[in-house]
Amino acid sequence: MLFNSHVFIFLFLPITAVVYYLLVNNKQTSRTPIIIAWLSLMSLFFYAWWDFRYLVLLILSILFNYSVGLIIRYANKHKSPQIRPKIALVIGISINLLALGYYKYCDFLIANITSFTGIPIPLQYILLPIGISFFTFTQIAFLVDVYRGYDAKVSFLSYLLFVTFFPHLIAGPILHHKEMMPQFEDICNLKVDWQNILVGMVIFIFGLFKKVIIADNLAEFATPIFNTVSQGVIPGLIESWTGALAYTLQLYFDFSGYSDMAIGLALLFNIRLPVNFFSPYKATSIIDFWRRWHMTLSRYLRDYLYIPLGGNRHGEYQRTRNLMVTMLLGGLWHGAGWTFIVWGGLHGAYLIINHLWRKVGVSTPWFCGWLITFISVVIAWVFFRADSLGSGIMIVKGMFGINGLAVNHFITETVSLVKARSWIFASLSIVLFMPNVLELTAKYNPALEINEKSIESRLVQYIQWNPSYLWALFVSLIAIISILEMVKVSEFLYFQF
């Protein structure tokens, strides 16, 4: 079920919310488990809507990881000689990774074995369960933290909701149990909070507009160019930059739009999710970029991969190695393909260069830092989007003028470059010069660690969202436009990861 669908907006969400509000208005002291059970049930239904066959996989994963967590906790607490917590942790992580590897990387491995050995092994054509990377990584983090001594008594219902909570289930953010489970069980959150409802709806509408109106329109320029190049057409300078920039902005508005909708939806139920995006294309360095882009993944890679590998504790060489390993695995997490590995490798190299540059201590004007960072990110996104390394290399060569300056008429037959430039210019202007959605609503604390102190844009003080007739008119207008444009199925880009 898609957030940008009529069945979600006009059926699923109203039913889920109305029953929730009726339950929280019930003054019985035992209502907390019932409310958690209701949200869990609807979250499972939300997942099953996509393909009910994989609901069994999700439930088995939850049962398995919750049980392993109990075993690790028991072994830590009672110092049991029969059960070693580290062995239980290794078994738990291994089974999670094996399941993820089977569904996500089996055909990739078979194809590469066939390519390198010549042995014809038939592909399995395994359908990737939606959201498997997100709910697998979320639960691995839970097991690691229990092993490290997180000793909170977590009920199964709270754990079930933590993993399945529908706003984040399909494409993140990657949740941390210490942030979320106390919110689910806090009796103070079980109320009808009209401010949260209003702010949540506003944030959801902004996210819907970003997805349906901006991202989907940018896709009409990015997709034909990348598809044409994959068919062997050589792009020139203008077409290459048009495709690369259109996809760069499409991905941002698509994924950040989803994250905004997730934050808005959670706020309807008095739950604050962590921030996943905070104006990443305003970053003036790659280090700064990764503090703003897919922030929960960056946190996860840092806490559960980079630091356990040794981080920067053992000298420059080890930090360089650990950065590259982390980013290569981060690239592979996004998808089973060499293009994702190249994307991760590029960002690993960018981060290494950035750290060395800082160590030298040479300062650069902010515009130069921004321009170098943005162009580097755009080049990496080409490989992230391309269906093969050859296609990605061809577009990058076009961006550097190696393919020539002439416009390829095979591409202009499918894409209006003039219209594309208008959309790119308008979208990039919004990204660079307008405050983001969380800044607009910051004084209402819509997400974890977002408040008035986190505002960067000076423009916010003049246009910050407030309950007013002018804002009501504007938000209503973009809501109507977005809903009227929901005439085609348009999945979120990060659903495939």
Briefly say what this structure is.
With about 500 residues, this protein is mostly helical.
Written account of the structure:
- The chain is 69% helix and 0% strand.
- The protein has helices at residues 6-25, 31-50, 55-78, 85-117, 132-147, 156-164, 166-169, 177-185, 194-230, 237-268, 286-290, 295-309, 316-334, 338-360, 366-385, 389-399, 409-412, 417-433, 437-440, 460-463, 469-485.
- α4 (85-117) runs antiparallel to α5 (132-147) and α15 runs antiparallel to α16.
- The longest helix is centred in the middle third of the chain and has 37 residues, at 194-230.
- It starts with 5 loop residues before the first helix and ends in a 12-residue tail after the last helix.
- The model has no long low-confidence stretch (mean pLDDT 90).
